[in-house]
Specification:
CATH class of the largest domain: Alpha Beta
Number of helices: 16
CATH topology of the largest domain: Nucleotidyltransferase, domain 5
Distance between the termini: 67 Å
Oligomer: single chain
Shape: globular
Strand order of the largest sheet: 17-18-16-15-21-22-23
Number of strands: 23
Length: about 500
């Protein structure tokens, strides 16, 4: 029986999916299962690691059944995952010591403020490419060590393990308490605030400041393994020994899934928020514009490649707000039809700073506003302004990336739920003055994990083969007059200025 398929696990914030691809990178099996979101206190967000592992097993079985294949036909397993979410568990029993702390969780804000008072917000940026923030998993680990009885002692003995979600899944897939492999890939490690971007190892000086026992940390490995980290067990999930050979944080996985393999290639994933990554080459570029420096991927024994990342907090969430809070429509897709009823925004701008502004402003004192209202304005104009807000915020980040990296992107590759909105994609091309290329497979994140796993085991020979498998179903060219483009964008910047400083 030949091994003609790659299995990708896409473990996200709200659900776990299993996708199976053939040699032509065509999707042949898909299963998805949501997991519960827990909010025990204001600002706290938790997941149950055991529920995620159980769901992973369930969707794996369902996807294999849908594809009509056996585990013995799978050549390798790759994982894409929500990045900064942290799990701690017992090496001997596989039981978590506590719920997973999700990337959205803000309980470590006081700790980050204390660290910033002692050494500045950027005290670790030279080593990690990141500012101090509750977003990252290193402060989450220190919080758990401080608050879970017995955890620190168990960690120093090597009994307690920690890791982001891909570490938890790899450990369980490769045997769990019976010899599970404890690793994390460079992309996820680069989001912990603990890894040195230059050495690709845990930074001893930061571990000392946070007083984190190195014994509990996973070994840092390439995103695509030169040798598989481990194998699924014959008596386990797949009924066969299948190499577990790749892992990437979800946004880096989308970069690989969009075949952004050269410096200057740029992708944006449009979802609840937007995540933009610009490939910057084999040397990290440290941002002066409020962006994050992160590992893009490392394939086998090749040097690591780096990226600049900028995030937009509210994109699809603004559409949801118009639907759920204001009742403008019943289904999110209806916003495009309404927006098409008017030729422009009617002079209205929406700045969706519901919880402040992310890159490149980083202003927590900003709040959302709608400006430019007149008696002429109808809900259709507001719908159009909401879509345009996503495009303007994307341009803000792209311009910051260009200034930092000294690179002018030639096009924007896009994926995610909002890319089905042709009106938004055309306006994005217009306001960026760049072509916008849409992936034919919305599942670019899972495809990136599959590509990394396939490259690890020789299922696909090299990056040129992978690039040839990436297909795009639509391209939008900019067609807006340059004077109008700059007039609209400058009005957007004026609106942002008015949103900043609202909280005092």
């Amino acid at each position: 029986m030949g091994r003609g398929y790659i299995l990708a696990i896409d473990q996200g914030t709200t659900s776990t999916r299993c996708l199976i691809f053939d040699r032509a990178a065509q999707l042949v099996g898909l299963a998805q299962q949501e997991h519960a979101q827990h909010y025990p206190q204001p600002g706290w967000v938790e997941h149950d690691p055991l529920e995620i592992w159980q769901n992973t097993q369930a969707v794996l079985h369902k996807a294999l059944a849908q594809a009509g294949i056996k585990g013995q036909e799978v050549a390798a397993v790759g994982i894409a995952n929500q990045r900064e979410t942290l799990v701690v568990w017992d090496r001997k029993t596989g039981q978590p010591y506590a719920p997973a702390i999700v990337w959205q969780d803000t309980r470590t804000d006081a700790l980050c403020q204390k660290l910033a008072r002692e050494g500045g917000l950027d005290r670790f940026r030279a080593q990690t490419g990141l500012p101090l923030s509750p977003y990252f998993s290193g402060p989450k680990l220190r919080w758990l060590l401080d608050h879970i009885p017995g955890l620190e002692g168990a960690a120093r003995k090597g009994q307690a393990l920690c890791g982001t979600i891909e570490s938890w899944l790899i450990w369980n897939l490769t045997g769990g308490p019976q010899g599970g492999v404890h690793v994390t890939d460079v992309t996820n490690a680069s989001r912990t605030l603990l890894m040195n971007l230059h050495t690709l190892d845990w930074d001893e000086s930061i571990l000392r400041v946070l007083d984190i026992p190195r014994e509990m940390l996973p070994r840092i490995v390439p995103s695509s393994a030169p040798e598989p980290w481990g194998y699924t067990r014959k008596d386990g999930l797949l009924g066969a020994e299948v190499p577990v050979a790749a892992a990437l944080g979800d946004q880096q996985a989308a970069l690989v899934g969009q075949a952004c393999f050269e410096p200057g290639e740029l992708k944006n994933t449009y979802g609840t928020g937007c995540f933009l990554l610009l490939h910057t080459g084999t040397q990290p570029v440290h941002s002066q514009q409020g962006l994050l420096t992160t590992v893009a991927y490392q394939l086998g024994n090749q040097p690591a490649t780096y990226a600049l990342e900028g995030s937009v907090a509210i994109a699809g969430a603004l559409v949801q707000w118009l639907r759920d809070n204001l009742g403008f429509f019943n289904e999110a897709a209806e916003i495009e039809t309404l927006a098409q009823c008017v030729p422009d925004n009617g002079g209205v701008y929406i700045v969706p700073a519901f919880s402040g502004l992310f890159a490149p402003y980083w202003r927590s004192d900003a709040r959302g506003l709608v400006i430019g209202l007149t008696r002429y304005v109808r809900k259709e104009h507001l719908c159009r302004a909401a879509l345009e807000a996503t495009a303007y915020q994307t341009r803000d980040v792209v311009e910051a990336m260009s200034r930092d990296a000294g690179i002018s992107p030639r096009m924007l590759k896009v994926d995610g739920g909002m890319v089905r909105n042709a009106l938004l994609m055309q306006f994005q091309a217009d306001i960026l003055n760049l072509p916008v290329l849409r992936s034919a497979l919305v599942e670019a994140t899972a495809l990136g994990a599959a590509f990394a796993a396939g490259l690890a085991v020789g299922f696909w020979s090299d990056l040129s083969k992978v690039r040839a498998l990436c297909t795009y179903d639509r391209r939008w060219e900019p067609r807006m007059d340059a004077t109008l483009r700059e007039h609209l964008y400058q009005n957007w910047r004026r609106a942002v200025e008015r949103a900043i400083g609202w909280l005092v």
